[in-house]
Amino acid sequence: MENAVQSLDGGGVFCEPCALAIGIFDAVHKGHQHVLNAAKDFAAKNGAKAFVLTFYPHPSKVLGGEKAGGCPLIYPADVRAELLLDFGMDGVFFKDFTPEFASKTPEEFFGFLMEKFPNLKCVATGENFRFGVRASADVKVLKELAGGSGVETISVCGVLDGGNFVSSTRLRKALQDGDMQSFYEMSGRNYFCRGRVEGGRKLGRTIGFPTLNLKAFGECKPKFGVYASRLQNLDTKEIFCGVSNVGVNPTVGECAPVLETNTFDFPDFGEGANIKVELLKFLRGEKKFASINDLKAQIAVDKENANKFFRVCGC
Ligand SMILES: Cc1cc2nc3c(=O)[nH]c(=O)nc-3n(C[C@H](O)[C@H](O)[C@H](O)COP(=O)(O)O)c2cc1C
Ligand SMILES: Nc1ncnc2c1ncn2[C@@H]1O[C@H](COP(=O)(O)OP(=O)(O)OP(=O)(O)O)[C@@H](O)[C@H]1O
C-alpha cells in the first residue's frame, strides 16, 4: 500500500485480502496489543495484510460520554497511527466518527466493512467490543454477521493489570494522577510527547535553567508538575536525561499548557528540532512561587531529585 495511513471517508475501496483489528486504540496499550497480535497472526498464516480500523474523534464525543465532553484522547491521531505502524500493522484506516456513522445498525456497520474491504478475511476485536447504533451489538452478533460472508472473527480475552481490565480510561486516570509507573505497566511504554521545539519567553536561560518546549499534547494532559524525563532528538537519535515541568507557569504569569525540559547536558539544538520527551517519574506538583528566586531554588532541588532517580534507574 502506497500510504500506510488512509481515511475511509473518501471513495477508496481496499481490495487486498486482510485481517482487520477494530477499535480506538488510544495509546495502544497491552489489551490493544493482544487484539493487534491476533490480526497479525491471522494475516501471517493466511497471506493477508494486517490492517486497523480506527475512529476519530473518540465516539464518546458524539455519543455524549464523560459528562458530554467525551473522553479526552491521550495521543493525537498521528501519534496513534505511528504507534500502530511501529507495532507492525500494515495499514491504519481512520473513519470519521459522525452522528450518522454512529446510527448505523449492526448490519449496516458490517456492510460498510465489506464495502470498504471486499476481501476481508478476519475481524479481530476484544471480547468486550460493541458496535452499531447505541452500541447495541456485541461479538456474538459480529460472529453471526461475519459468518454469513465467510469472514472469520477473533475476539481475544481481556488483558488484566492488577485484577482489572487494562483500558485507555485507566491510562487516562494514571496520566492525570501522575502515576507514570502504572501508565508504563499498562501500555508497555513510557508516556511521551513529541513534536518540534517551540519558542518560549526565553526567561529560563536568564534564571539558569534553559528549557526545550513542546506543546503537542493529546487532549488528555499529564498531571501538572515536575517529572524526571528523557529527551531524544529524533533526527540525531541523541538521548539526554533531564527534568521537565508540565504546566502553565503560574509564577511568571500563566501561559498555555507547555512541557518544558531542562536537560542535564544542554544540547546544541533549539527551536524547530524534532524531539520526543518521555515522562518517567512524577516528582512534585506545579506551584506558584512568591518570587523567581524561590522558583530557581526549587528547580535546583528538582534537578537533584531527578538525578537521584537516574542514579537508581539509569537514563
Ligand atoms: C524543573 C522545572 C520546574 C518548574 N516548576 C515550576 C513551578 O513549580 N511553577 C512555575 O510557575 N513554573 C515552573 N517552571 C517553569 C518556569 O517558570 C519556566 O521554565 C520559566 O519561566 C522559563 O520559561 P520560558 O521557557 O518561557 O523561558 C519550572 C520549570 C522547570 C524546568
Ligand atoms: N484489556 C483488553 N484486553 C483485550 N482487548 C481489549 C482490552 N481493552 C480493549 N480491548 C479491545 O481492543 C480494541 C480497541 O479498544 P478501545 O480502544 O476501543 O477500548 P479501550 O481501551 O477499553 O478504551 P476506552 O477505555 O476509551 O473505552 C477493541 O476491539 C476492544 O475490545
Automatic annotation (TrEMBL):
Enzyme class: transferase
Keyword Kinase: yes
Chain ranges of the Riboflavin kinase domain: 186-311
Catalysed transformations (reactions): riboflavin + ATP = FMN + ADP + H(+); FMN + ATP + H(+) = FAD + diphosphate
Coiled coil regions in record: none
GO molecular function: FMN adenylyltransferase activity; riboflavin kinase activity
Gene3D superfamilies: HUPs (3.40.50.620), Riboflavin kinase-like (2.40.30.30)
Pathway named in the protein's UniProt entry: Cofactor biosynthesis; FAD biosynthesis; FAD from FMN: step 1/1; Cofactor biosynthesis; FMN biosynthesis; FMN from riboflavin (ATP route): step 1/1
EC number(s) stated in the UniProt entry for this protein: 2.7.1.26, 2.7.7.2
Entries under NCBIfam families matching the protein: ribF (TIGR00083)
Family membership noted in the UniProt record: Belongs to the ribF family.
Function: Catalyzes the phosphorylation of riboflavin to FMN followed by the adenylation of FMN to FAD.
Protein name: Riboflavin biosynthesis protein
Lineage, broadest ranks: Bacteria, Pseudomonadati, Verrucomicrobiota, Opitutia, Opitutales
Protein encoded by which gene: ribF
